[in-house]
Design goal:
This protein has about 850 residues and is mainly alpha-helical. It folds into three domains: about 300 residues, P-loop containing nucleotide triphosphate hydrolases (Rossmann fold); about 180 residues, no CATH class; about 170 residues, Helix Hairpins, CATH 1.10.287. About 70% of the residues lie in helices and about 5% in strands. An eight-stranded mixed sheet has the order 3-4-5-2-6-1-7-8, sandwiched between helices. A hairpin with a 2-residue loop joins strand 4 and strand 5. Helix 1 crosses helix 12 and helix 17 packs parallel to helix 24. The relative contact order is 0.08.
């Protein structure tokens, strides 16, 4: 049984007087007979408009079976819903708590919606858990009223809400239901019925109005007459004017009685419906929308859906005072302008707050950036100070003091620069001192980092340049030493005496040319004969060697055949022994079997067969032993033959080795004789050749010396052999002093060649980026050059200096000084510029942060 079908007096709801302590808020139920008319959207927008005008507004979602009013506020950029329907209790939770005798304050069920500097409160249909639908379906409304005094509870709830809020807007369930009766009968002061242009909606709304008014007459509490505000929805007068006009006549005929109750006498239903309706705007039919917050045009244009909501809000605000709504368009325009002005003022305040936050944020970012730059500079300063102080606490403390003073002074200068020059001289002086100290220490640290190691870059380029110079100087020194040695050889007394002796040999050879020619011819004949004799002997030895190798091969074949035959006999021996062993095993088995049979008490035919088998096997053993004996004799004979042939082959090997040695010896002797024959000088041209060799020697071709000595000795021997000169009177062809000097010259030349091959500029290992390797390369080149003296000592000292700079413990500032003022390394200047730039950036960032434009608000709050 619904509330309309049952008088309220039947429920245990006590009578009470109406409180008139102060002006109470109004409760407005938005009802539609069917869904899809825009009821919830109208309620949400009207509530927001009332809140924008500064009223305290509460929205109640009483559509328990199809909740969702919160969707108009969730996830919208124009407003913010604080709280969640998933965890916050609502209407159904209040009723359930009442039925279960639990205390649940309705105020704890409120969610807050904030927008445009305003806010409204909202109570949802209920906590949206998985059990929500089950809880709604299980509600027994009859038991609620009869057993749990829900009527008095709702009355108390109604009064408390009206005490706290100016407007309570209820989103009612559609159709005719118990829940709808609560929303249309018990709770509201005003009933806003929303309907579209069809008879079902009109008749449904008429019926609910009738039921509500009849039910309110039976309430045990005092209620004023329920005022009804009929509101046509989805009006399409702009596109279908004639049809819309026809339906307005239908609205007038159906709702003129309700309007008559509160419209002034000079106005009728036609006046009302010509002004009050909600137009159909397709764009706003998608999703849950708040046009009055989403578009300013909605508050300026009287034909918009927002203007209709504004008219409804104005009518509700004035408690259905139609005189205030007579000039609805003008009033709506003024009201819209006021709301828009308020919204713009709020937007301006929001922009101002955002701007101030941006300014503060920019200042904070600049401050953080300045601190970060100070930290970056401080890291370099601290690292540089560690070169002077091994105590990290001392270095860290000094660094912190310098960087903190640098940052503070920068910010102070940036904040006070407008006070004049006299006010910032001291601060500027402090800033420059701190910046100088910071740059001084951080430059060395930055250069070490940029240059990839302690002095590697500068030392690498410097030592490479020094090693190039050293190589050039060493090459020049070796060339000068070679030239001096050659000049000393040619101009020495030993050479002059040697040339005199050689000239004497040449002159005597030319004088005795006939004698030495004959002697030379005889010597060649003798050598030729000796060569021929040795060749015959060599051929004979090779023949003997061939015969021995042939015999050796034959004997080897015989030996291989005998060994193969012996191996066959050995296999037969093994086979015979295995056969004998097998037969003996058979004999033993037969013997055991025979003895077993005999012991059993009978040895008849079986024993005879066993005896025959034993006899047969014994004969087999005898035959096998005989065969084994013959094989052993043959194997011994073959083994003896193998030993004899092996000794024969061994003697062949010894003889062949001796003949090979003789062949090699004869071949070497023949080669020597041929060389002597080929080198035997022709007596006619030998003197002139010797004179040419001496001339080449004087031209510093010292390789001609050995050839000249050989030629000279040959001529000297011919002179002595031909009796053209005695051995004692013959001049000497060699001079030991010259040989020593040439050896020294060649040693210098060899050192130069080794130096040139291994110490070219292209061989400097600069690609390794290892300074010490380049230094060591220079030292190796110094050692290979083998030059002594002060110059060599100076070059080695230069390399030692570079080695110390390149060492891991090289002092940073020594390296930096060398880089800046000696080598002028670009990376060193870059490190210096970077250190200066970091400290300058600290001041620039501090200046920007301290001088962010400060805008002060000149706007007053708009009420």
């Amino acid at each position: 049984m619904s509330l309309a079908e049952r008088p309220f007096g039947e429920f245990p709801m006590s009578k009470r007087p109406t409180k008139k302590t102060h002006l109470l808020g109004g409760i407005y139920t938005f009802y539609s007979y069917k869904g899809g008319v825009g009821r919830s959207m109208a309620l949400a927008n009207v509530g927001a408009l009332l809140a924008l005008e500064g009223f305290k507004v509460l929205l109640l979602d009483w559509d328990l079976e199809a909740p969702g009013l919160e969707a108009f506020f969730q996830g919208k950029k124009q407003c913010q819903l604080e709280g969640s329907v998933e965890v916050t209790p609502g209407i159904i939770d209040l009723l359930t708590a009442r039925s279960e005798a639990r205390t649940l304050d309705w105020r704890s069920c409120r969610l807050s919606v904030k927008f445009r500097g305003s806010e409204l409160d909202f109570i949802s249909a209920g906590q949206r858990s998985r059990e929500y639908s089950t809880r709604v379906q299980n509600v027994d409304w009859t038991a609620m009223f009869e057993e749990h005094d829900i009527g008095n509870y709702l009355e108390n709830l109604r009064e408390e809400m009206k005490l706290e809020y100016d407007f309570i807007l209820i989103d009612s369930r559609t159709g005719i239901t118990d829940i709808g009766d609560i929303c249309t009968v018990l709770m509201p002061d005003y009933l806003i019925t929303l309907f579209v242009s069809n008879q079902q909606n009109i008749n449904g709304c008429k019926e609910i109005i009738r039921r509500a008014r009849e039910a309110r007459q039976n309430l045990p509490v005092n209620r004023s007459r329920l005022m009804v505000v009929p509101m046509p929805c989805r009006d399409e007068s702009d596109s279908e004017y004639e049809e819309a006009s026809r339906w307005r006549s239908v609205f007038e005929s159906n709702f003129s009685e309700e309007l008559f109750e509160w419209l002034p006498a000079e106005f009728n239903a036609t006046d009302y419906f010509s002004r009050m309706y909600i137009p159909y705007i397709p764009i706003w039919s998608f999703g849950e929308r708040l046009p009055i917050l989403e578009s300013r045009r909605e508050l300026r244009d009287p034909k918009t859906i927002g203007a209709s909501y504004l008219a409804i809000a104005g009518l509700l605000r004035d408690r259905l005072n139609w005189y205030s709504a007579v000039g609805v368009e003008e009033r709506s325009s003024i009201q819209a302008a006021a709301i828009e002005l308020q919204m713009r003022g709020e937007e301006t305040r929001e922009l101002q707050v955002a701007n101030e936050r941006l300014q503060l944020g920019l200042s904070a970012v600049m401050f953080v950036t300045a601190v970060a730059l100070s930290l970056a500079s401080g890291i370099g300063t601290f690292d540089g100070m560690r070169a002077y102080s091994s105590n990290p606490l001392v270095a860290g403390g000094v660094t912190f003091g310098i960087q903190a003073q640098l940052l503070a002074t920068s910010w102070w200068l940036a904040s006070n620069w407008r006070r004049g020059l006299s006010g910032i001289i001291t601060g500027g002086f402090v800033f420059l001192i701190c910046a100088f100290v910071s740059i001084f220490f951080s430059t060395a640290s930055l250069y070490r980092v940029i240059d990839n190691g302690p002095g590697d870059g500068i030392a690498l380029r410097s030592v490479e340049s020094a090693v190039v110079t050293i190589i050039q100087d060493l090459s020049k020194g070796l060339n000068e030493q070679i030239a001096a040695s050659a000049s000393g050889i040619v101009s020495g007394n030993s050479v002059a005496n040697w040339i005199t002796s050689v000239d004497a040999i040449v002159n005597q050879s030319e004088a005795a040319i006939a004698e030495i020619s004959e002697t030379s011819r005889r010597r060649q004949d003798r050598l030729a004969a000796e060569i021929a004799g040795n060749r015959d002997e060599l051929d004979q030895a090779r023949g003997q060697l061939f015969d021995l190798e042939t015999a050796q091969a034959k004997k080897q074949n015989e030996l291989d055949a005998i060994i193969e035959k012996r191996d066959l006999e050995l296999a037969k021996i093994s086979e015979s022994r295995a056969k004998i062993s097998t037969v003996q095993d058979l004999i033993a088995a037969d013997t055991v079997r025979r003895d077993t049979e005999a012991a059993a008490g009978g040895c008849g035919r079986t024993c005879s067969e066993i005896e025959l088998s034993i006899a047969r096997n014994e004969r087999s053993v005898q035959a096998a032993n005989e065969e084994l004996r013959r094989s052993l004799l043959l194997e011994k004979e073959l083994s003896d033959q193998v030993q004899v042939l092996s000794r024969t082959l061994s003697s062949f090997v010894d003889d062949i080795d001796l003949l090979n040695l003789r062949v090699v010896s004869l071949e070497a002797r023949i080669n020597d004789l041929r060389a002597a024959f080929a080198s035997e000088p022709l007596a006619i041209v030998a003197p002139s050749e010797l004179r040419s060799l001496v001339t080449e020697f004087e031209a510093q071709n010292f390789s001609a010396y050995e050839i000249a000595v050989v030629r000279c000795e040959s001529l000297r021997g011919l002179l002595i052999e031909s009796n053209s000169i005695s051995q004692d009177a013959a001049p000497q062809c060699s001079a030991p002093g010259i040989s020593v000097e040439i050896l020294q010259y060649r040693e210098i030349q060899e050192r130069f060649e080794i130096f040139e091959a291994n110490c070219s500029v292209a061989d400097i290992p600069s690609q390794s980026l290892d300074v010490q390797k380049v230094v060591n390369f220079g030292r190796i080149c110094l050692d290979r050059a083998g030059l002594g003296g002060a110059e060599n000592t100076a070059l080695r000292a230069t390399l030692d200096d570079f080695s110390r700079v390149a060492a891991a413990d090289a002092h940073d500032f020594a390296v930096l000084q060398l880089a800046l003022f000696v080598v002028k390394d670009p990376l060193a200047y870059f490190a210096l510029a970077l250190a200066i730039a970091i400290d300058c950036l600290i001041f620039i960032v501090a200046f920007v942060g301290a001088n962010v434009p400060r805008q002060r608000s000149s706007l007053k709050s708009i009420s």
